[in-house]
Every structure is written in structure tokens, then in C-alpha cells.
């Protein structure tokens, strides 16, 4: 399976299919491919983390983190906690959680993250 963000062949796993589907979804919604990365390494203290997808703003700062799971994995508090850990290492305005069947989008507010109903336009994220 080809990953256009890493520019290489990657293992054809259920999670990878979800990741590639969501990359295509973002690109189809006008998110610039050149401002996205997949399997992006982050650090939280001494811990090394890998975000499935990071969407960057025009200055190269992370604007959104996407956590992808296999379709049979329910999107729950554990998945959200994982994405929040990524946010702690690299603060973002949006968090997307998806298993390819259910997708949840959260926007950072003064009170924490709040669910939004649909995929924001790239320009809305900036």
C-alpha cells in the first residue's frame, strides 16, 4: 500500500487502510498534502510517541492530530486519551479520532476540547 505522505510502500494493515482513507479524505477536502505527515514522531518527556497523521499550518506548526484505529476498535476514552497525550507533546487546535466507520472531531476551546459536527475546512483550522 502506498503512503503519499511518507512517499513509500507501507504494510497493508487494517489500521493503515484507515490512515490512507483519512489522508485521502483530508486531501479531498482541500487539506494540502504538503502540510500533512503520517507516522510523525513526537516526544513527551523521555517518551517517544507516533501520531498517525499530523496536519500543519502554513508556518509548519501542528494544527491537528489524527488518531486512526482498525475498524473493529471502538473510539472511546482510551483512544481519546492517546490523542490527548500527543496534544500534550505538541499542542494542536483540533483532534480527529477515526476507525474508518466512526469519526469524531474535537476543537480546542478555553474549556478544553469540544466536539464539532463536521470536518472543518483547512482554512478554518488556522
Named at the architecture level, the CATH assignment is Alpha-Beta Complex
Q: Span from first to last CA?
A: 31 Å
Q: Which fold name is given in CATH as the topology?
A: tt1808, chain A
Percent range for helical residues? Answer: 25-40%
Fraction in beta strands? 35-45%
CATH class: Alpha Beta
Structural class computed from helices and strand pairing: alpha+beta
Q: Tally the beta strands.
A: 8
**Averaged pLDDT, please?**
94
Query: What is the oligomer described by this structure?
Result: single chain
Lay out the secondary structure.
Blueprint: E1 2-3, E2 8-9, H1 14-28, E3 36-44, E4 47-56, E5 62-68, H2 77-89, E6 94-98, E7 103-109, E8 112-116, H3 122-125
Parallel strand pairs: 5-6
Antiparallel strand pairs: 1-2, 3-4, 4-5, 6-7, 7-8
